[in-house]
Amino acid sequence: MTMKKVLCLGAGLVARPYVHYLSDRGFHVKVASRTKSKADRLVEGCKNTETVTFNIKTDDDLLDKLIAEADLACSLLPYTFHVKAAKIAIEHATPFCTTSYISPEMKELDKAARSAGIPILNECGVDPGIDHMSAMKIIDHVHNHDGKIRSFTSFTGGLPAPEANDNPFGYKLSWSPRGVLLAGRNDAHFLRDGKEVKIPGAELFDNYKIMEVPGIGKFEGYPNRDSMSFIDTYGIPETETMLRGTFRNLGWCGTLKKIADLGLLSLDEQSFDGMTFADMMYNLVNDKEAALREAVSGKIGLKSDDPVISRLEWLGLFSNQQIPDGINTHLDALCNLFEQKLQYAPSERDMIVMHHEFIAEYPDRKEKITSTMIDFGIPNGDSSMSRTVALPVAIASRMILDGSMNLVGVHRPVMPDVYEPILNELENLDIKLEDRVTPL
Questions:
Q1: FRET label pair with 434: which of 136, 292, 411, 428, CA 20 to 30 Å apart?
Q2: Is the dihedral of CA 340, 342, 343, 347 positive or negative?
Q3: Cα 40 to chain center, whole Å?
Q4: For 196-212, what is each residue's pLDDT tens digit?
Q5: Cα 183–Cα 432–Cα 428 angle in degrees, nearest 5
């Protein structure tokens, strides 16, 4: 029997577990990356793999050829490129997967994917992904036992493990800093106690709660984009609360709020030629008479010894370090400092914390159900972020290729015949949620 061929587009932070999972199970994996050396490092120690230099922005003929030769393509590129690749996959009737949210443009491909007889499976990572699957497992169980979901909240965070949480931000990068910071500009829309709540992006970090997760501690939880659409996605029209959010360590929201107030999340282009980070900050606060620490404190209404000011100084925003060439927005200048200061050391672990809370109502009783995942990275090995993002879509890819998942059209993994086998295999790979039921 000929070996099935998988195309992995991208060799970024989460690609390694995807490639290793499939190559270990007898699939041939081709990794296409703009930086071939990155792809070469990724496949070290793998059998059945090859790499190719590829730029999604310019290499249209190569994209067509790579997808035509593959039995399945998975895009681990930035989400803005998924639709371009998915359209080519439809032309060649090649099944296609991503870990990203279904965009309106992706949704529009449903009819064409059905005509081609292929699945376009999205949202099959950790968040979105494991969050959907683990939530649906409980929601379906409640509905199958004549119950109704009255409240659903779900928070997830990618954070340093407690022993690696050793900087003032309480954060390290297991993901692109630009993505992390841009998320702080998004509006939020959710349902609480039967009322719709809308929070503009500028007020996002004023709207956090301190939440305790059993077994790990306290976090700040703030709302994440549009929760309302998931009432339909999860089939819970009866719910009075629907809130999906993000976990960060204590102090993050207050700091990011002031970073936003200073204009450091701005995407307006300008020249920073010859400027230091301190010069940039002086321009933002428009006060060159005072010492920088005092000028920044005054601008954002804090005392100069406030921990937020200390965090900004620690990050390097008050330093005489040159802003590197090629940076032309405040956001990218901030990203540069994040990349310098918020890296994991080789032996350090990250962790993913996911915590769902449901109120379920049955004809004769009410229950609070919690479902919690606390997953740690492997020291000197794969991060928790890379494993929890890549392994669900790797398992789904295997299921599509071996014929045990029969979908056509654009989907997310919310059906029992998709989420059950994926969650079961994740548990075998030591990624699992602990469920608790408390009578109310």
A1: 411
A2: positive
A3: 25
A4: 999 998 899 999 999 99
A5: 130
Q: Hey, which bits of 180-324 come out as E strands?
A: 188-192, 195-199, 209-213, 217-223, 241-248
Least Cα distance to 358 among 137, 201, 146, 182 occurs for: 137
Q: Return the C-alpha torsion angle 204, 205, 211, 215, nearest 10.
A: 110
Determine contact, residues 74/27, Cβ cutoff 8 Å: no
234: nearest Cα among 139, 142, 150: 139
159, β-bridge pairs: 351
Mapped onto helix, strand or coil, the DSSP state of residue 22 is helix
- 394 within 8 A of 8, measured Cβ to Cβ: no
Domains identified in the chain and CATH numbers: 5-122 (3.40.50.720), 130-251+347-383 (3.30.360.10), 256-341 (1.10.1870.10)
The DSSP letter of residue 62 is H
pLDDT band at 1 (very low <50, low <70, confident <90, very high): low
Structure tokens at 320: 């005489």
Token readout for 421 is 């086998």
DSSP-assigned letters across all residues of 245-310: EEEE-TTHHHHHHHHHHTTTT-------TT-BHHHHHHHHHT--SS-HHHHHHHHTT--TT-HHHH
Catalytic residues: 127
C-alpha closest to that of 341 among 325, 361, 321:
321
Contact between residue 132 and residue 393 where contact means Cβ atoms under 8 Å apart: no
Q: How far apart are CA 283 and CA 410, in angstroms?
A: 48
Cβ neighbors of 424 (< 8 A, separation 6 or more) are none
Query: Helix and strand tally (H, E) in the chain?
Result: 16, 16
- pLDDT by residue (tens digit) across 8-58? 999 988 999 999 999 999 999 999 999 999 999 999 988 999 999 999 999
Q: Are the beta carbons of 27 and 3 closer than 8 angstroms?
A: yes
pTM over 0.85: yes
**What does the block give as tokens for 18?**
């995807």
How far apart are alpha carbons 219 and 212 in whole angstroms? 6
How many CB atoms neighbour CB 68 within 10 A? 15
In whole angstroms, give the CA distance from residue 421 to residue 32.
Answer: 28
> Residue 106 and residue 86: Cα distance in Å, rounded?
8
